[in-house]
Amino acid sequence: MNIFDRSEHVYVSPDFDEIIKDTIRFFNGTPVHPLPIAERFHGTGVYAIYCVAKSGIYSKFNLINRTSFHMPIYVGKAVPKGWRQARKSVSAEKKSYELNNRIKEHSRSINLGEGLDTSDFFCRFMILEDKESDLIGTVEAALIRQYQPIWNTLLDGFGNHDPGKGRYEQAKSDWDVCHPGRSWAEKCKGVHTNKEELLQNIKEFMSELSEENV
């Protein structure tokens, strides 16, 4: 009879940890662009959106990001087609515009969202293609763990898509409750979270935010 030893199943790699640290260093050194990005580009990868609003519920981000973009409001990824089914890598020779399209979609959401101004938002991104595209999900998760962006952690739903006809029985997301404007979200008829409660949670989150968090 075999004796179970959990340690025989645990994989640990210092090299992998260093690779992730290196990708984050590279990511944080990439140029920052205003939204929407004027130049269309190809590639898949990871991105972060930053807020520099001088007024409103997110105005503290202006103090944190005014000299350098330290604290993202949202982190996301754009994966190759077929990635979820077969985890296929994308060749640099085959042009794919998922990352560009995803950031463009977010620009439209911000433009429609109540209380938001697109001119207050910027983004940076890192293109991961060929074998490096296998790191997309891992790098996204590492950035979210490090920065705990409010639109990833506290206010869910910014990255949602139109659920489509016949699926509007679900609740409107917390993000759409606080920043109404996306027409498809208004069709969602489920019981959603109280807006006043969400705004109070945002206020508390922002009050505890400081440059020491980054």
Task: Describe the model.
- The protein has 214 residues and is of the alpha+beta class.
- It is built from eight helices and four strands; from the N terminus they run H-E-E-H-E-H-H-E-H-H-H-H.
- A four-stranded antiparallel β-sheet has the order 1-4-2-3, with helices on both faces.
- The longest helix is centred in the N-terminal third of the chain and has 15 residues, at 14-28.
- The radius of gyration is 19 Å and the shape is globular.
Index terms:
single chain, 214 residues, alpha+beta, four-stranded antiparallel sheet, 4 strands
Summarize it.
The protein is an alpha+beta fold and 214 residues long. It has helices at 14-28, 60-65, 83-86, 98-112, 136-147, 150-153, 174-178, 195-207, and strands at residues 33-34, 45-51, 74-78, 121-127. The protein has eight helices and four strands, in the order H-E-E-H-E-H-H-E-H-H-H-H.
Mean pLDDT comes to 91
Largest sheet: 4 strands, antiparallel
For the CA atoms, what is the radius of gyration?
19 Å
**What's the total helix number?**
8
Distance between the termini: 51 Å
Gross morphology is: globular
List unreliable stretches of 5+ residues: none
Structural class call reads alpha+beta
Structural topology:
Elements: H1 14-28, E1 33-34, E2 45-51, H2 60-65, E3 74-78, H3 83-86, H4 98-112, E4 121-127, H5 136-147, H6 150-153, H7 174-178, H8 195-207
